[in-house]
Amino acid sequence: MSVDDQPSPEQQTGDFYEALLPILNQPPTRRTALKAAGAALGLAAFGKAISPLWSIPENVSTDEFLQQHYKELTDEDKRKVFERLEAETKELHGASVTISDPKPIPGVRYGYAINLSKCNGNGACMEACNKENNHHRGVDQSYIRVLEMSKGSMDMEEGNTTYDHTVPQDDKYYMPVQCQQCDNPPCVTVCPVEATWKEDDGIVVVDYNWCIGCRYCEAACPYHARRFNWEEPEIPSDEVNPDQGYLSNRIRPQGTMEKCHFCLHRTREGRLPACLEACPTGARMFGDLNDPDSDINWVLKNKRVFVLKEDLGTQPSFFYFFDS
């Protein structure tokens, strides 16, 4: 085809809208519509047709922009996506990584409990989370906040997360807060593109490549457990954790939401969450709520446990208790 035979921008835009028409009677999101149009037109034509309307960010490839939702990816699709992400990590961060996709273990439903009598606010859990989950090093990021609370009070609004004095303080106790992996998660309900959902083992996950960064989930979460990636992640190559899960600790792109996922790349392989292993006081307990002999069930049966903001009906799978 000669240059003279190339369709004009107006014709390309018309082709774009014509490709879009068959799905306009359905309830697609903007991203779903754009993906469908891209599939109908072909990537090259799609790129030209869309340019007068939207611009794909420079740091996002067309393949990534048109990638299907995680639940729609075939095994072959996943292989190609993981290879692309591994290559990008090598190029951008200088680290060789392996991205896996461990599935929920049939019949298992995870729960977490913290003994507030043992937690002394040392912050080792936050540090472990930062390293395990490949957080951006430009900020002091973690999926965990440890609130320093006045003894006798349960008012989380009065909790202090920026203390820098010696711990523990005699008149204080310490409450780590992270994603509560709710059975009725409001963050999932409000997501306009279904980029987040609850899996069979109770873990609420995020498809980072499908997330549009609207932050509705962050606003909906009553536990302040969601994090937004404001910047391109910066991690020294020798600090990148190479053992990565697609729905867990792979390096997340700028402009997307993220959260605690119970270290599913570890726990679905029979290991414990990194925060639990790092805790020097033994305050943390994790296990299968469906196993009557698990440590977590022993806690539920023998301790007076409570959940945060029970009145909201979120039904957390995260429990707290005191020894006395």
Helices and strands in order:
Layout (H helix, E strand, L loop, with lengths): L8 H12 L9 H12 L1 H8 L11 H4 L9 H19 L4 E3 L9 E6 L8 H9 L12 E6 L21 E6 L8 H5 L5 E3 L5 E3 L9 H5 L6 E2 L14 E3 L11 E2 L5 H4 L6 H5 L5 E5 L6 H8 L15 E4 L3
Parallel strand pairs: 1-8, 2-11
Antiparallel strand pairs: 2-10, 3-4, 5-6, 7-9
Helix pairs in contact: 1-2, 1-3, 2-3
What would your notes on this structure say?
By secondary structure, this protein is of the alpha/beta class. The chain contains eleven helices and eleven strands. It folds into two domains: 7-100, no CATH class; 110-321, Alpha-Beta Plaits. It has helices at 9-20, 30-41, 43-50, 62-65, 75-93, 124-132, 186-190, 216-220, 264-267, 274-278, 295-302; strands spanning 98-100, 110-115, 145-150, 172-177, 196-198, 204-206, 227-228, 243-245, 257-258, 284-288, 318-321. The protein has a three-stranded mixed beta sheet, with helices on one face. A two-stranded parallel ribbon has the order 1-8. The model is unreliable at 22-30, 34-39 and 50-54 (pLDDT under 50).
Number of domains: 2
Which descriptor suits the 3D outline? globular
CATH topology of the largest domain: Alpha-Beta Plaits
Q: Roughly how many Å is the radius of gyration?
A: 22 Å
CATH top level class name of the largest domain? Alpha Beta
- Mean pLDDT level: 88
Number of helices: 11
Largest sheet: 3 strands, mixed
Structural class by SSE content: alpha/beta
Give the tally of β-strands.
11
Question: Helix share of residues?
Answer: 25-40%
Protein name: Tetrathionate reductase subunit B
Domain 4Fe-4S ferredoxin-type: 202-231
Keywords: 4Fe-4S, Iron, Iron-sulfur, Metal-binding
GO molecular function: 4 iron, 4 sulfur cluster binding; metal ion binding
